[in-house]
UniProtKB/TrEMBL annotation:
It holds the Pfam family Transposase_20. It comes from the Bacteria. Keywords: Plasmid. It comes from Ochrobactrum quorumnocens. InterPro entries: Transpos_IS110 (IPR047650), Transposase_20 (IPR003346). PANTHER family: TRANSPOSASE, TRANSPOSASE FOR INSERTION SEQUENCE ELEMENT IS1111A. Transmembrane segments: none annotated. One of its GO terms (biological process) is DNA transposition. The keyword Repeat does not apply. GO terms for molecular function: DNA binding; transposase activity. Residues 2-64 form the Transposase IS116/IS110/IS902 C-terminal domain. This is Transposase IS116/IS110/IS902 family protein. Signal peptide: none annotated.
């Protein structure tokens, strides 16, 4: 799904990949008023698939589970934690395709 929806993956920076999937927070503010950041834009179907994958990864993948736990300990809301894990999934996929290496949990810890 990732490569089919995003053939540019592996040829861009991690920030560009996150923005293209709509997982990069966009500040909402005007002048001195500052609002919360939200995720929007990007490729909607891909964002939904990554969100579902992040739900599973936050509980079952050792590397991403530790990321999720660290954010929860800091008091972050559940949806923010899952979006952060989804962004990490895109970053990992982009790095794997860019370098040609295979996934190894030992190299991530």
């Amino acid at each position: 799904m990732l490569i089919a929806e995003m053939p540019e993956l592996g040829k861009m920076t991690s920030g560009e990949a996150a923005a293209m999937t709509g997982l990069a927070p966009v500040p909402y503010g005007s002048g001195t008023m500052r609002g919360k950041r939200m995720i929007a834009g990007g490729r909607r179907a891909l964002r939904h698939v990554l969100y579902q994958a992040a739900l599973a990864a936050a509980y079952h993948n050792l590397v991403l589970k530790s990321v999720a736990q660290r954010l929860k300990e800091r008091g972050k809301p559940h949806k923010l934690v899952i979006v952060a894990v989804a962004r990490r999934l895109v970053t990992i996929a982009n790095a794997i395709l860019k370098s040609g290496a295979s996934w190894s949990q030992q190299s991530q810890t």
